[in-house]
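Try this one yourself first.
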């Protein structure tokens, strides 16, 4: 494949082909001239002569152009051939069809046994399926101009690269890749490269010498599977069963490199430890007392400056669940059931988790431990995120369930309090006590609302809002909350688009943030509330949340307070987490704000620097349908004045105290009330076809059949009956089911006597 032999042959073939085609054209011109001689008329003769002359001139011009093209192509290819000929890496100059135009001396020396006119033929004995690999790389080079790929061969790693300098010309380079384990001056370690399915892709020479040849899969090499990093395993070596200490390193693309280390002789002296100094695996030698006796460079880089000789292992890392000293003692005594533990390093600059595997050896008759370390920070971070999400979900479910039960209790308490208030006027000595009971029941209902807000199960009443108007209405109350030492400053974007949210809940979020900012500045300061309308042109990724592209109204609440430490910053939205002293806070404020914001479809983030201040940022999506009719302000309407008591009510409630209050309240208004403690009992009552029922008042969540299910069944025979659903859960939890039931309304618990009777009256009229 010499440079001077291959290059002219290809161009000669091209030139000969062109000459053959031009020769055909000249033959046609000659035929036209002969036909012209035989033509009977002079005009026809001249026509044939002209055509023949034109073809002859065209043929000569084309022949000249071909000659110029061949010369230029030859010069270009000669330049490229001279360029690659000076390259020490095997290089080829080839056409699009893979035909080799030229090759350098390194390529001719490396692939002389595979002499071929095509690149696929030259690489046929080096890589498997060379045609597919070359086609894939050439296709990428056609679009990007360059492509390369690392391949595992029988003799090691190679990197195949291709450049496209011309329209139909490609420069290929086949370069050996030096394995990382052979790049240091220390001893070359036995190393095998393993793929996804435990197939051995590559073995270096020390590994081949250890095993006694090429092995294709792990199960043929290791006597027990699976192979665990940091453990001593038995392999089938050239001299029989051999023990090795396995260390695993990620090699990318689903591959891993397994280093087969010596398991440690019966005695490991300090001078022998120097052999391990440059190994690409963090190693520690730990004495029976837990003191570090030796370590290598990789261990020092992983653990940090605190790693020194005679430092106790517990001073470097802390156990997750049990004492490190107990673990060391059990391992030395041979009683440890688990030799691998995940531990947290005591580094002050960053959080690092390590997987530590202990191996017991003997040194001069005394037991010693060799610890193999690997960085497990990413794994533990993912695990912590998963556990946190599971914990928050569980707390949310618990909060929703507790809120439901409390709402039933509060309904009974406040309801019976209303019944007592009907029999006492303001001059009665018991009237003030009843008012206190009623007010505290309402406060308890507000606390339950916070629990529902955290679990995102409270009922929202969204409306179209202008953030400037909302803050303007709230400014007076906020100024009273911050006190005299703190200054409240509001800054608005001049063009602020509308959003959709529950105004009452949004005000609660803002008040919680302002109160926290005030408490962070005991000596006074400034709280800044800034609104801005922004457009995200790219998704915003932070705190494991992605804010999609679009328009948002942002609200920034900033203070100059003491700040939040970084280790507590990720916990501020957790329920019952607070840095305040006992009695100063419940720890539900920020978790409530978080739940409201998330249920609204918005986002909340926090940034803080200790000693500088804290900044909360809220992103509210801009209302898309801006031309929709604005929500009218709530106008206090007169309660229904029609007469009560002209209807039959079927009351279905599984909680006896709530059912007792509701039935008494409705009977006091003159209604006829039929009671049922379950959905099945209600359907049994309705089997009487002569019974006339005007309204169903039913709980939503009950043992057995739930409220919407039995109502749908009952409406098949009584389609005109109206329905009032009551529940301690949010309306959203069964909103779809309610929407499918005609003439139905929702009444959340806890409700008062007037709330219940007025709702029933409105349904009847």
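Now uncover the answer:
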């Amino acid at each position: 494949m010499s440079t001077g032999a291959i290059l002219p042959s290809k161009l000669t073939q091209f030139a000969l082909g062109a000459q053959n085609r031009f020769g055909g054209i000249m033959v046609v011109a000659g035929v036209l001239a002969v036909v012209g001689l035989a033509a009977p008329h002079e005009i026809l003769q001249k026509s044939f002569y002209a055509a023949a002359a034109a073809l002859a001139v065209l043929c000569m011009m084309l022949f000249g152009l071909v000659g110029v093209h061949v010369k230029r192509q030859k010069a270009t290819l000669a330049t490229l051939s001279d360029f690659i000929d000076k390259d020490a890496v095997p290089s080829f100059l080839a056409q699009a069809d893979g035909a080799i135009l030229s090759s350098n001396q390194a390529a001719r020396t490396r692939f002389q046994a595979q002499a071929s006119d095509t690149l696929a033929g030259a690489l046929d004995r080096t890589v498997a399926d060379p045609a597919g690999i070359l086609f894939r790389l050439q296709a990428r080079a056609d679009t990007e101009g360059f492509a390369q790929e690392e391949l595992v061969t029988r003799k090691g790693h190679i990197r195949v690269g291709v450049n496209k300098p011309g329209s139909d010309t490609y420069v290929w380079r086949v370069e050996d890749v030096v394995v990382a384990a052979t790049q240091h001056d220390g001893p070359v370690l036995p190393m095998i490269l393993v793929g996804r399915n435990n197939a051995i892709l590559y073995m270096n020479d020390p590994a081949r010498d250890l095993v006694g040849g090429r092995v294709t899969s792990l199960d043929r090499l290791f006597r027990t599977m699976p192979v665990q990093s940091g453990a001593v395993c038995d392999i089938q070596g050239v001299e029989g069963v051999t023990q090795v200490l396995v260390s695993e390193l990620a090699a990318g693309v689903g591959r891993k490199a397994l280093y087969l280390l010596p398991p440690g002789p019966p005695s490991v002296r300090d001078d022998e430890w120097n052999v391990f100094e440059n190994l690409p695996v963090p190693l520690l030698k730990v004495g029976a007392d837990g003191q570090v006796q030796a370590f290598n460079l990789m261990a020092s880089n992983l653990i940090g400056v605190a790693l020194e000789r005679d430092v106790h292992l517990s001073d470097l890392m802390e156990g997750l669940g049990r004492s490190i000293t107990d673990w060391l003692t059990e391992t030395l005594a041979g009683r440890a059931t688990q030799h691998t533990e995940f531990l947290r390093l005591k580094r002050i600059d960053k959080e690092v988790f390590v997987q530590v595997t202990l191996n017991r050896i003997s040194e001069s008759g005394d037991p010693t431990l060799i610890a193999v370390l690997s960085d497990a920070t990413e794994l533990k971070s993912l695990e912590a995120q998963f556990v946190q999400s599971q914990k928050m979900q569980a707390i949310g479910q618990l909060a929703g369930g507790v809120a439901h039960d409390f709402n039933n209790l509060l309904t009974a308490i406040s309801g019976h309090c209303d019944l007592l208030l009907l029999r006492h006027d303001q001059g009665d000595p018991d009237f003030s006590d009843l008012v206190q009971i009623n007010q505290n029941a309402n406060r308890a209902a507000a606390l339950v609302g916070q629990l529902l807000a955290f679990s995102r199960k409270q009922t929202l009443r969204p409306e179209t809002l202008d953030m400037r108007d909302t803050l303007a209405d709230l400014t007076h109350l906020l100024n009273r909350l911050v006190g005299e030492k703190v200054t409240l400053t509001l800054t608005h974007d001049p063009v602020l688009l509308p959003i959709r949210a529950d105004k009452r809940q949004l005000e609660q979020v803002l008040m919680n943030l302002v109160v926290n900012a005030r408490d962070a500045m005991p000596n006074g300061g400034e709280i800044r509330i800034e609104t801005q309308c922004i457009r995200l042109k790219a998704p915003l990724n932070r705190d494991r949340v992605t804010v999609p592209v679009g328009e948002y109204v942002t609200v920034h609440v900033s203070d100059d307070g003491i700040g939040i430490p970084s280790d507590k910053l990720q916990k501020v939205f957790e329920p019952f987490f607070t840095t305040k002293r006992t009695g100063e806070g419940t720890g539900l404020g920020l978790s409530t704000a978080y739940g409201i914001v998330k249920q609204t479809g918005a986002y909340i983030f926090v940034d803080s620097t200790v000693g500088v201040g804290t900044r909360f940022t809220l992103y509210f999506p801009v209302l898309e349908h801006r031309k929709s009719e604005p929500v009218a302000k709530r106008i206090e309407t007169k309660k229904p004045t029609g007469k009560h008591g002209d209807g039959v009510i079927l009351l279905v409630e599984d909680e006896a105290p709530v059912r007792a209050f509701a039935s008494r309240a409705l009977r006091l208004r003159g209604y006829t009330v039929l009671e049922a403690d379950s959905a099945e009992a209600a359907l049994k009552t309705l089997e009487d076809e002569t019974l006339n029922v005007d309204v169903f008042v039913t709980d939503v969540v009950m043992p057995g059949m739930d409220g919407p299910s039995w109502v749908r069944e009952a409406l098949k025979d009584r389609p005109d009956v109206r329905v009032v659903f009551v529940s301690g859960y949010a309306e959203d939890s069964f909103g779809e089911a309610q929407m499918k039931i005609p003439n139905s309304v929702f009444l959340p618990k806890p409700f008062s006597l007037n709330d219940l009777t007025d709702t029933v009256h409105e349904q009847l009229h």
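Discussion: Residues 377-422 form the longest helix (46 residues). The chain is about 40% helix and 25% strand.
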